[in-house]
Amino acid sequence: MTYCLGIKVRGGLVAIADTRITAGTEMYSNKKVSLHEVGKHSLFIMTAGLRSVRDKSITYFNRMTEDQGVTFDYMFEAVNAFGEILRKVAKEDKEMLKSEGYHFNLHSIIGGQMAKDDEHKLFLVFPEGNWIEINEGLRYQIIGNSNYGKPLLNRGLNYETSLEDALKLGFLSFDATQVSATDVDYPIDVIVYQKNSFHLIEHRLEKEEMESISKQWTNLLKDSMNNLNDEWVQSIMDKSLISQES
Questions:
Q1: How confident is the model at residue 246 (pLDDT cuts 50, 70, 90)?
Q2: Where is average pLDDT lowest: 30-34, 91-95, 103-107, 180-184?
Q3: CA distance linking residue 34 with residue 76, whole number of Å
Q4: How far apart are CA 1 and CA 145, in angstroms?
Q5: Rounded to an integer, what distance in angstroms lies between the CA atom of residue 145 and that of residue 143?
Q6: In 10 A of CB 26, how many CB atoms?
Q7: pTM of the shown model
Q8: Nearest CA-CA partner of 189 in 15, 9, 1
Q9: Per-residue confidence (pLDDT) for residue 22, from 0 to 100
Q10: 8, 2 contact by CB (below 8 A)
């Protein structure tokens, strides 16, 4: 399993990817997000699925953009190109993987802004190579373990959320997943894109440096629960006492 989160707000994009890789009974750490220079601009690709499919697809994409010098005017063109690569890899490897008991699988989140895009763009790409755009209505997308991180984002995130607060919510969403699932773990790679900057910021966060933030959030949650109006709780407990007395 994995945890990759892409967020789009008016001020830009936030991407967070864990690095836990599970292969049978073995676990190790490796990047799940890659940055790609395309002309004078850049984009990122986050993936969840079979590592062999991911590595081959990213290698083909790098060869296209770096060795062959392919550029894109719009982000959707880059996403279409990556989708074509996925279909190519499927033709090459799908039957072989199936014979070994593996299901061809790679979900991807791609974000950035090309020269002719009117704004920053974020896309979810399916294993078949088709895609949807993550826009103002969708706000975010998680690939991998999405069971624990969604509630916080659904409650706290909207399109007008600042880029800084989107990053905070993104981390807390990861934190909720990391403390609840053994297959998601540090370090995490963070990508931030400020609108119209045409420049991606990449940073890696280690568990040790974020442990105090995680503990602070836990304490804030406890304080919030203690301060929550509990008249309804007392009403229920009073009924319990009345039942015992009678």
A1: low
A2: 180-184
A3: 18
A4: 6
A5: 7
A6: 7
A7: 0.94
A8: 15
A9: 73
A10: no
How far apart are the C-alpha atoms of 164 and 162, rounded to whole Å? 5
Q: What's the pLDDT at 25?
A: 67
Contacts 24+ apart (CB under 8 A), 85-93: 85/57, 85/60, 85/61, 86/53, 86/57, 86/125, 86/127, 86/128, 86/129, 87/128, 87/129, 88/60, 89/53, 89/56, 89/57, 89/60, 90/127, 90/128, 90/129, 92/56, 93/52, 93/53, 93/56
Residue with tokens 């959320």: 161
DSSP 73: S
Q: Give the separation between CA 98 and CA 94, rounded to whole angstroms.
A: 6
* H or E element at residue 31: none
What's the pLDDT tens digit per position in 187-214? 999 999 999 999 999 999 999 999 999 9
Mean pLDDT to the nearest integer, 37-63:
96
Neighbours of 47 (CB within 10 A): 26
Please name the residue ranges forming H helices in 131-195: 150-156, 163-178
- CB atoms closer than 10 angstroms to residue 82: 23
Residues 112, 102: Cα–Cα separation, whole Å: 31
Contact (CB, 8 A) for 127 and 57: no
